[in-house]
Structures are given as structure tokens and as C-alpha cells.
UniProtKB/TrEMBL annotation:
<dbReference type="Pfam" id="PF14248">
    <property type="entry name" value="DUF4345"/>
</dbReference>
<protein>
    <submittedName>
        <fullName>DUF4345 domain-containing protein</fullName>
    </submittedName>
</protein>
<feature type="transmembrane region" description="Helical">
    <location>
        <begin position="75"/>
        <end position="97"/>
    </location>
</feature>
<keyword id="KW-0472">Membrane</keyword>
<keyword id="KW-1133">Transmembrane helix</keyword>
<keyword id="KW-0812">Transmembrane</keyword>
<feature type="transmembrane region" description="Helical">
    <location>
        <begin position="47"/>
        <end position="68"/>
    </location>
</feature>
<feature type="transmembrane region" description="Helical">
    <location>
        <begin position="103"/>
        <end position="120"/>
    </location>
</feature>
<dbReference type="InterPro" id="IPR025597">
    <property type="entry name" value="DUF4345"/>
</dbReference>
<feature type="transmembrane region" description="Helical">
    <location>
        <begin position="7"/>
        <end position="27"/>
    </location>
</feature>
Amino acid sequence: MLTKKKNLHLLISAIIIIVVALAYGLFPNTMLPILFDFKVESVDLNNAFRATMGLYTGMVALWVMGVFKPCYWRAATLSNVFFMIGLASGRIISLLVDGVPSTSFSAGLALELALGLWGISNLNKYRSTADQ
């Protein structure tokens, strides 16, 4: 049971981020105009979103490794914390500079903060059980 609770933030993060990665990168010409208010009309923009998909997928791979290989749990959790808090920080800057975003982006901020703080909490809570 300890292991399941310990890994839950990584699993939830992995599920959410893989969905986002695939939405951004598999079919950017189709998905992004639906999700956002712009069209992807250049090779460079397609390339940027597919690179983002690759980055997100790589992070998810590390988080999943942390779930199944306890020796990677700390690295996976640290990367998850930096990833989520980094995204949240960017959204907070945008909130202050650009104004209040849509409900979906505000929900993203709340989730990123929650997952990042949960990861910090788990790092402290499971400090002595990192290899369980």
C-alpha cells in the first residue's frame, strides 16, 4: 500500500501529460485549432509542437520508470516537481502580465501546482524509503 500511495502523483502526472503530449504532437494541424484559438500553418510550428510532444513523452517515461523501478523514484519525483512547478510558474507570470486565462488554463495551473506540491510532500514524506 505504501508504494501505491507513494507513486500516485507520478501516475496521475503521467496520464495527464501523455494525453497533452499526444494532443500537441500527433496531429497539431487538427487538434490545436480545436484546443486553442490559432491554426498551425507552418512546418516550424508543427516541428515545435512535435518537439514538445517528445519532451513531454520523455518526462513521462522517467516518471513511469520511477513507479516501476524504485531506484529511479527520487529522480522521477524531482523531475516531476520541477516540470509541474515550472509550468505553473509560467502560467502565474502570464496571469500577472496577460490577465486571467480561460477556465481550462486556470484548471491547468491548479493541477500543476497541486501535483508539484504533492511531489514535494512525497519527497519529504518518503525521504527514508526512497528505495522501497
